[in-house]
Design goal:
Blueprint (H helix, E strand, L loop, with lengths): L1 H9 L8 E6 H6 L2 H22 L4 E7 L7 H5 L4 H4 L3 E4 L11 H26 L3 H16 L1 H12 L9 E7 L11 H10 L22 H6 L10 H52 L14 H11 L5 H4 L1 H16 L1
Parallel strand pairs: 1-2, 2-4
Antiparallel strand pairs: 3-4
Helix pairs in contact: 3-8, 6-7, 6-8, 11-12
Length: 340
């Protein structure tokens, strides 16, 4: 969960581009039905945690790993060229609407059936040129196991990813096969199951001579499959709501500030207009005054014009009081400079 929290902090709107669900194919096929159901519940809960944490619909890519441990894999794919091994092997599904979100199950069933038929046709051609009895049996077992595991895979992946009414359904984008390291012994799971069911001697799997490790069907998986659909994941609903809330509050704040600024400007404009009209009136009054030219030692004849001039001087307010704080600040700064 700490990793998910960190990713949410780094990329809040679209934290991830998808989920790669890697399943070990041999272990899945070899396990019983109850074990597969328990694993499906664990994976389903984990995917639900991720979708709830990020508040988004996320693409899911299922990768069936260790496909080389299916008996006959090496015989069937061993002669592939490097360019062919670098191609991705699997099934990509159509991006459906919410009403058809589970259509991938039908696509998977149809695509897998077509895949098995193509494998059987290729095996039929290989059998015509294969003399070794061991290779013939290996190719036959590979086709048999591919066909037999279809229902198991469909049921398991459906248990993990099928939609319900209570959780955010992910986009199931595809199912792919992979083989990175050829380690372990290939197994014929049907022979093993029959031996266990009827208490028969266990069949020893075929031995493969040691050879250089090769990668099958995983080269450029991200570039070919994941990255082209990087924008498919939906936005984090929580983050979208948070951004929307911030936008609304910010807009309201800007509007309130704008109204306050406009009201303040209008108030001062009205005050300045009133003061200007008063100043003009006092100026006109002063111009129309007739000052006696006779000598008056008391200066009483100048009191009225001087009063008018004083009123005109303070038409815009008492400037001495307005700049008192500035005078004090300048005085303090000047006093400090003198001390230094």
């Amino acid at each position: 969960m700490n990793l998910l929290d960190w990713v949410s902090d780094i990329r809040p709107q679209r934290p991830i581009n998808g989920i790669i669900l890697v399943v070990e194919l041999p272990n899945l096929i070899a396990s019983n039905h109850s074990d597969r159901q328990a694993l499906a519940v664990i994976l389903r809960n984990r995917i639900r945690e991720i979708t709830e944490q990020f508040g988004a619909r996320i693409p899911v890519y299922v990768v069936l790993n260790k496909s080389d441990l299916i008996e006959g894999f090496e015989t069937f794919y061993g002669n592939l060229k490097q360019e062919e091994r670098h191609q991705n092997l699997g099934f990509s599904f159509t991006l459906n609407t919410d009403a058809q979100v589970d259509n991938w199950t039908k696509e998977f069933a149809d695509s897998y059936s077509s895949f098995v038929k193509e494998v059987e046709e290729v095996i039929f051609d290989k059998l015509a040129t294969t003399i070794s009895q061991e290779e013939r049996e290996s190719l036959y077992m590979y086709a048999r196991q591919l066909g037999g595991m279809q229902n198991i895979l469909l049921q398991f992946i459906s248990d993990v990813l099928e939609s319900d009414r209570f959780t955010t359904t992910p986009y199931v984008r595809g199912v792919y096969f992979s083989s990175i390291f050829q380690e372990g012994m290939p197994t014929d799971f049907y022979q093993a199951a029959i031996s266990k069911q009827f208490d028969l001697p266990h069949v020893v799997p075929s031995y493969l001579p040691e050879r250089a490790q090769r990668t099958f069907f995983t080269y450029n998986f991200f570039q070919n499959i994941i990255y082209p659909e990087a924008g498919l994941v939906s936005d984090n609903k929580k983050e979208v709501r948070r951004n929307k809330r911030k936008f609304i509050l910010g807009t309201i704040g800007i509007i309130v500030c704008g109204v306050c600024i406009l009201a303040t400007w209008q108030n001062y404009f009205y005050q300045n207009k009133t003061a200007s009209l008063k100043l003009i009136k006092l100026t006109d009054e002063f111009r129309q005054m007739t000052i006696s030219q006779s000598m008056d030692p008391t200066g009483r004849n100048l009191l009225k014009p001087l009063n008018v001039l004083r009123q005109a001087t303070y038409a815009y307010g008492d400037y001495e009081k307005h700049y008192l704080s500035l005078k004090i600040l300048v005085y303090i700064r000047g006093k400090k400079s003198v001390k230094k």
